[in-house]
C-alpha cells in the first residue's frame, strides 16, 4: 500500500480523474466527499493545522500518475470543508486554511480531560506549557497549533471552566483552571 | 390551319365554331397537338369554353377513367424517372374530370410539374399518400386560362385534353379523348405555373430521351455500338489499331463538342446537365483505373483521384427543389428532399452526422440552387411533423447533428462503457480519437458521445498535460466512511486489478 507520511493511501489516489475537478454534479459531490475525508485523515496523522494554497502540499499531487490538483480544485475541496465546519479560511483571499480535524469543541473536551487526568483542576499553566510541556507529551495536545488552542481555551473560558490572563512575558498567556 | 382561325374570327355563332373545332380535332390526327399549340395561333383562340365543354359531354361518354400511379419515396417525395426534372409545384389543387362521374375526385393535393409528367400527390402522411401522374406525352391540347369577371374571383382552372385508351385509362397512344381539369385553390403564381406547363409540354423532353440514349455523345457505350457496325460515323474503317485510335479520336471530339455546347450558356448547360454528369463519371472511372496500372503512382495523382471521388459524391441531385418551383411549400418539399438525401451520408458516417457537414454535402449536390443555413435548419425542424426516420439533435455544447431515429443513446452508451472497460482504457483512459476509431464515427461526434456519457455518470474526465481522457466512473462505489474498502467484482475492483497489472 502506498503511504504518504504515516497515512496509508487508498487505491483511488492513483485514479487520474480523482485529480480533475469533475463537472458533473453527482460525480463531483462524490469526489468532494472523498477528498474531504482524505484531507482530514492526512492532517490528523501528520498533525497539520494549516494548508497554504500557494505552497506545495504533498497530498495534492501524485507523482506516480503525474497528476496535481489545480488551484480551483484545491479551493473547491477546502471550501467544502469550511462549509461543513471542519475548516476555516484564515484570510479573505482564501490563501490559508485552518484545518479542524478535531473541532474546537473536541479540542476543548480534550483539554478538560487532560486537566482532570493530570489533577490540574485548580492550577495555573501557561499556554505554551499546555501545548509543549512535559505533561502534554504523548497526548494529542502536544504540538497543537497555537491559534486552535487559543480558540479552544476561549471557548472554555466562556463556559467558565478557566480564565485566561496575561502572563509575565509579553507573548505568553496563562490559564487558571477552575473546573 | 391559319385560314381556319381567321374563319373563326368572323364566325357567327360560338356553338358553330365549337363544333367546327371539334371536327377539326377529330380529323387533324397527330398534327392537332402542334397545330393548336403555336403561340401565333393562340391569339385567335380566345373563346368561351363552356359550350365546348358541353360538346364533349354530349359526344363523348367515358367509361371508368384511370390515371397511372406515381411512385413515392419514404418521405413522400416523388420518384423521378431518369432525366426527369421538377419544374414547378403548387398546393391545394383539385384534379377531376367533370364529364366522367366515375373518375375519382382528387381533392386538395400537391401538384408537381416535371419535364415528363404532371404529378398529383395527396396531402397526407407519407405512408398513406396516393399519387397519380399524367404523362405530358398523353396531353393533346391545353386550353388557355379563361379570363372573365367570374374567373377573377373564383379559383383558376387549367384544363387540358388527354388521350385515353378505350377502357378509359390515360395513355399517350390512346384513341379516345378526355378532358382533365385542375382547380388551383392554393396561393401561388398561377400564371407562372401555366406558362411553365406550356413550356414543359412543348419541350417534349420525353421524346428527346430515346435519340439521346442512342447517340450518347461519346459518353457510355457508344464505342461498342460503333465497333459492332465496323464503320465509324465518318465512314472510315474501324479495324485494327488505326481503327481503335480513330474511335478514340472521335470520342474525344464529340466530348469536346459537347463540352463546348454545354458551357455556352446557362440554359444549354442545364439541358446538358445529364450528359455532363455521365462525362464526369467516366473521368472518375479513368482516374480510378489509371494510377494502378503505372508503377510508383505518386501522391499528386492519388490526391486528384481523391478529389474526383469527393466531387462525385456531390453530383447526386438533378432536380433541386427551389423557392421558384415550390413557392409557399418550399420548406416542406425541401424538408422531404433533405430526408431522402441524408440517408446515404448517414450510413457512411455511422448513424450520426454533423449539421454543418450535411449543409456542405447537400448544397454541393444541388449545384446551383443553393440553400441558406436558415433554410436547412427550418427544413430539419419540420421533420418533427412528418414521420421521417431521421431527426435533428442539439447537444449541450451547442453542436447540432442529424441522426437516425433508430440510433438510440442507450446503445451508444453500452458500447462506450465496454470500450472504457478494456485494459488499455482502464490504464490510460479513453480519448475522443480512440473512441472515434473504434466506433467508426467522426472524432467530433465521438467527443459528444463521451461528454453525454459523462453527464449520465458512466465516465469521468481526466484533464492534464497529456490531454483530455475519459475513464470509467466508479466514484459511486467508494464508501466515504471506509476509504480502503474495495467491493469484489465491482468496477472499482476491475480498475484496481488493471492498474496493478501495469
Estimate percent helicity of chain A: 25-40%
How many angstroms does the end-to-end distance of chain B come to?
97 Å
Number of folding domains of chain A? 2
Largest sheet of chain B: 7 strands, antiparallel
The secondary-structure class of chain B comes to alpha+beta
Q: Spans of chain A of 5+ residues with little confidence (pLDDT < 50)?
A: none
The biggest beta sheet of chain A, please?
Answer: 3 strands, antiparallel
Number of strands of chain B: 12
Q: How would you name the CATH homologous superfamily of the largest domain in chain A?
A: "Winged helix" DNA-binding domain. Chain C. Domain 1
CATH topology of the largest domain in chain A: Arc Repressor Mutant, subunit A
Strand numbers in spatial order across the main sheet of chain B: 4-3-2-1-7-6-5
Q: Biggest chain pair contact, residues each? A: A-B, 25 and 26 residues
Task: Produce a short descriptive summary.
Chain A: Keywords: Protein transport, Transport. The complex is a heterodimer of chains A (179) and B (502). By secondary structure, chain A is α+β, with helices and mostly antiparallel strands.
Commentary on this structure:
- The complex is a heterodimer of chains A (179) and B (502).
- By secondary structure, chain A is an alpha+beta fold.
- In chain A, 39% of the residues lie in helices and 17% in strands.
- Chain A has helices at residues 25-46, 71-84, 104-117, 127-132, 146-158; strands at residues 3-4, 7-8, 50-52, 61-62, 67-68, 87-89, 96-99, 124-126, 162-166, 173-177.
- In chain A, a hairpin with a 6-residue loop joins β6 (87-89) and β7.
- The relative contact order of chain A is 0.11.
- Chain B has a seven-stranded antiparallel sheet. A three-stranded antiparallel sheet of chain B has the order 8-10-9. Chain B has a two-stranded antiparallel ribbon with strand order 11-12.
- In chain B, a hairpin with a 2-residue loop joins β11 and β12 (467-472).
- Classes of the chains: A alpha+beta (179), B alpha+beta (502).
